[in-house]
């Protein structure tokens, strides 16, 4: 499945659930809890609970130092863009995890916080009345080359994103909301007027045009990922993405620093000057693991943990693998089937919705949604570990999730009725319907070639749509190339399959607003924009109002269906018994326990990952 992350647009908040606290940005964490026996048969997919615990601890005498071996499931080579203002692919986020320290983070309610209590390198003060926040970096935080981290490094991140030669995708509403940002981007000023540094450069006050409700959320409206000015400022902004300082020798302020990078592995070594204390292990080796090799590698005890185990192989590991424990959780993400409805105007920074696009008829989109039996697809291909989505917000956000929506349950009769009434004639004796003008209709569907079952699922979609008379031709494309095509609005794509990882803030603007480059369907209407605006209005500081606005938006979006929310995803990770502690990073607020379970505190209880032949620690 092709995934991009919602919160990646705004910060390295919760950079990667694969990595524990104090290395994965600001929200993905590890914790310690007493290990108990797990009933590996207890998997209740009806209420989205996998029945596995979300954290483990192993007791024993730790070895001195040692190397932690992490497997990263990826069937395509990573792009290797290791910079928080430039990366877009989840695998790159994973590679950044050990080097990206916690600047700010999310508490138990996903509120953006800082301070020593959360192991953060900075603290934040809100001044809603003045439309300002002040971020102060604590003393003693260092980059991996020994230079001090300052608030000026945060300013530099804003300057890079706002630069006219910036090649990334993060310049949007969040940045435009900073006073003076658009003037800076247009070359009218050399600095950003709304950013004021203290004399010692340890604090910055950021002034906004508007103070919006989601600015209190981790991963919301405040960018929170500094980048080292002293290390990168001499590189032209347009060249940063290809620079060695980004791809070969990146630096951060997290507990580990990069030692070596190849196409299939990254080696990290402990950063002894880490502001929360030197790591207790010596090094980490993170290797790319093809989906086809995951199970055999675990039986061979090659890795200490792997996150996001392939659900199509659930039968091979659901009863457990000797030497390992399973960790389960419902993700804050969903897969979807998108319809291309326009183009992106890069000069204007706006979606250009095309009401005459091939897929612009809502009736056609709704019929294609009703044609799919996603419950059966989940059982057949994902062993019931995915669930038919009924909304564009997963139920992990229970306050905002609209549980009154039924989405598009499988109903081919209704699909045929919709197409008949909309004028898509199906001539007797013909295999496929005509378009509303009486011409042959061929729909081009593209999906990522990222798993063993990608083609089987594409074939299922094709057959389901053929059953209601739609001629859909499918193709598979390497994931990174598919993203490039989506961003460039390739003419060959009418429909595509992808996924969104929402992170800690469900505010939908960065995926769906008319000025978001991540609005891949290129859908924009006045009514839809008004509903988005309502979520971020002054009235939405009232929680009840904002909750209702979220639910109204979901109802409208599911009715218009510019993309079909297909499956909410669950995730299983597996952790070797020699690892002292682990929790999946989706659990909010665990950064507060950083002194007990940060990645720098993780220890190993044996020289090698344990297998069925290994003695207990």
TrEMBL record:
<keyword id="KW-0732">Signal</keyword>
<dbReference type="GO" id="GO:0015833">
    <property type="term" value="P:peptide transport"/>
</dbReference>
<dbReference type="InterPro" id="IPR000914">
    <property type="entry name" value="SBP_5_dom"/>
</dbReference>
<comment type="similarity">
    <text>Belongs to the bacterial solute-binding protein 5 family.</text>
</comment>
<dbReference type="InterPro" id="IPR030678">
    <property type="entry name" value="Peptide/Ni-bd"/>
</dbReference>
<dbReference type="GO" id="GO:0043190">
    <property type="term" value="C:ATP-binding cassette (ABC) transporter complex"/>
</dbReference>
<protein>
    <submittedName>
        <fullName>Oligopeptide ABC transporter substrate-binding protein</fullName>
    </submittedName>
</protein>
<dbReference type="GO" id="GO:0042597">
    <property type="term" value="C:periplasmic space"/>
</dbReference>
<dbReference type="Pfam" id="PF00496">
    <property type="entry name" value="SBP_bac_5"/>
</dbReference>
<dbReference type="InterPro" id="IPR039424">
    <property type="entry name" value="SBP_5"/>
</dbReference>
<feature type="signal peptide">
    <location>
        <begin position="1"/>
        <end position="22"/>
    </location>
</feature>
<keyword id="KW-0813">Transport</keyword>
<dbReference type="InterPro" id="IPR023765">
    <property type="entry name" value="SBP_5_CS"/>
</dbReference>
<feature type="domain" description="Solute-binding protein family 5">
    <location>
        <begin position="120"/>
        <end position="511"/>
    </location>
</feature>
<dbReference type="GO" id="GO:1904680">
    <property type="term" value="F:peptide transmembrane transporter activity"/>
</dbReference>
């Amino acid at each position: 499945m092709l995934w991009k992350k919602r919160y990646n647009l705004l910060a390295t908040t919760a950079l990667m659930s694969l990595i524990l606290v104090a290395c994965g940005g600001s929200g993905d964490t590890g914790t310690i809890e007493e290990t108990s026996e797990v009933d590996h048969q207890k998997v209740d997919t009806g209420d989205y609970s996998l029945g596995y615990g979300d954290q483990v601890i192993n007791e024993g005498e730790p070895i001195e130092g040692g190397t932690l071996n992490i497997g990263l499931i990826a069937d395509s080579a990573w792009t290797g863009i290791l910079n928080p203002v430039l990366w877009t692919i989840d695998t790159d986020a994973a590679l950044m995890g050990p080097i990206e320290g916690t600047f700010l983070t999310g508490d138990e309610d996903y509120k953006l916080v800082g301070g020593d209590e959360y192991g953060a390198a900075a603290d934040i003060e809100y001044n809603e009345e003045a439309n300002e926040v002040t971020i102060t970096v604590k003393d003693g935080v260092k980059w991996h080359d020994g230079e001090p981290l300052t608030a000026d490094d945060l300013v530099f991140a804003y300057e890079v994103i706002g630069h006219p030669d910036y090649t990334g995708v993060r310049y949007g509403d969040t940045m435009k909301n900073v006073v003076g940002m658009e003037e800076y981007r247009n070359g009218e000023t050399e600095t950003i007027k709304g950013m004021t540094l203290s004399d010692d450069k340890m604090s910055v006050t950021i002034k906004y045009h508007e103070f919006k409700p989601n600015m209190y959320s981790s991963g919301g409206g405040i960018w929170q990922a500094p980048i080292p000015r002293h290390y990168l400022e001499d590189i032209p902004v347009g060249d940063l993405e290809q620079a060695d300082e980004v791809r070969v020798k990146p630096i951060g302020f997290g507990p580990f620093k990069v030692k070596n990078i190849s196409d299939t592995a990254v080696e990290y070594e402990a950063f002894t000057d880490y502001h929360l204390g030197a790591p207790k292990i010596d090094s980490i080796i993170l290797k790319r693991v093809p989906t086809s090799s995951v199970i055999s590698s675990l039986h061979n005890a090659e890795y200490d943990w792997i996150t996001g185990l392939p659900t199509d192989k659930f039968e091979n590991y659901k009863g457990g693998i000797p030497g390992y424990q399973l960790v389960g959780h419902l993700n804050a993400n969903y897969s979807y089937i998108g319809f291309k409805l326009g183009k992106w105007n890069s000069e204007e920074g706006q979606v250009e919705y095309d009401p005459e696009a091939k897929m612009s008829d809502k009736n056609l989109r709704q019929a294609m949604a009703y044609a799919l039996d996603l419950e059966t697809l989940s059982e057949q291909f994902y062993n019931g570990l995915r669930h038919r989505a009924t909304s564009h917000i997963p139920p992990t956000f229970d306050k905002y999730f609209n549980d009154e929506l039924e989405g598009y349950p499988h109903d081919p009769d209704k699909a045929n009725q919709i197409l008949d009434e909309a004028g898509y004639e199906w001539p007797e004796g013909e295999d496929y319907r005509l378009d509303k003008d009486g011409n042959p209709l061929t729909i081009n569907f593209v999906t990522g070639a990222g798993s063993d079952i990608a083609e089987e699922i594409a074939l299922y979609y094709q057959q389901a749509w053929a059953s209601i008379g739609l001629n859909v031709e499918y193709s598979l494309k390497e994931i990174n190339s598919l993203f490039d095509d989506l961003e460039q609005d390739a003419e060959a794509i009418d429909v595509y399959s992808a996924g969104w990882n929402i992170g800690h803030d469900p505010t939908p603007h960065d995926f769906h607003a008319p000025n978001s480059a991540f609005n891949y369907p290129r859908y924009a209407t006045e009514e839809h924009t008004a509903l988005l605006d309502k979520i971020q209005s002054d009235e939405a500081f009232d929680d009840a109002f904002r909750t209702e606005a979220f639910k109204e938006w979901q109802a409208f979006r599911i009715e218009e269906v510019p993309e079909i929310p297909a499956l909410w995803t669950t995730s299983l990770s597996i952790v070797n018994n020699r690892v002292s502690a682990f929790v999946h990073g989706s659990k909010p607020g665990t950064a507060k326990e950083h002194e007990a379970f940060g990645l720098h505190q993780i220890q190993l209880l044996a020289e090698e990952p344990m297998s069925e032949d290994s003695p207990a620690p």
